[in-house]
Design goal:
single chain; mainly alpha; two-stranded antiparallel ribbon; 61% helix; globular; disordered N terminus
């Protein structure tokens, strides 16, 4: 994505439709993945930037050398698979502009939704988000490769951020409890639906 506030961004993809990041409820770990994805995309778009090194520095700064390297490597495998399987360009927002970083574009959203689905082990949502991320319909081996990398990244995030896993489980338990409070069975015939 072109950033008008940062010099030398003219060779990157044109500005795509983006939305304020604050409109979405991403976990801190998912926001970290977004930053790492952006660094890797910047590195692919402009190899001289060596932004992949910034991804490692960022991961280690946020999580320490062990967990940081684990998350950064899992993210690298995830974006590499997207890059190999996606036939259209992957739009992204540059990580070096503080103002632009407050936005998220559709391709980034799809990738993060895939990560969320993998963390929740929701296979149907993973397959849907995977197709959206790769911008392809149907089933093919590349989709399975992406789902495998997503599962791995989700597992790594759940291990490194167990407190988020617990809060997600609590939300699921609360939803089940609320659902169980509603009467089940047939509706009376005179009740509108």
């Amino acid at each position: 994505m072109t950033c008008s506030r940062t010099p030398d961004h003219g060779n990157w993809s044109q500005k795509s439709r983006s939305f304020p990041l604050r409109n979405y409820r991403f976990q801190p770990s998912e926001l970290l993945i977004l930053e790492l994805l952006r660094y890797y995309c910047q590195s692919y778009a402009n190899p001289d930037s060596l932004a992949w090194e910034k991804a490692f520095v960022w991961g280690e700064k946020e999580l320490g050398p062990y967990d940081g390297a684990w998350v950064v490597n899992a993210t690298a495998a995830f974006i590499r698979t997207i890059r190999n399987e996606r036939k259209t360009s992957f739009e992204f927002i540059v990580p070096c502009c503080e103002i632009c970083r407050q936005e998220i574009c559709v391709t980034e959203l799809n990738a993060l939704w895939l990560v969320q689905a993998a963390r929740a082990e929701n296979v149907l949502a993973m397959e849907t988000a995977g197709r959206l991320t790769l911008d392809r319909a149907g089933y093919w081996s590349g989709l399975e490769d992406l789902l495998e990398k997503s599962r791995h990244l989700g597992t790594v995030l759940n291990e490194v951020f167990p407190e988020e896993r617990i809060s997600r489980q609590n939300l699921t338990d609360r939803a089940r409890l609320i659902g169980s409070q509603f009467p089940r069975g047939q509706r009376p015939r005179d009740q509108l639906h």
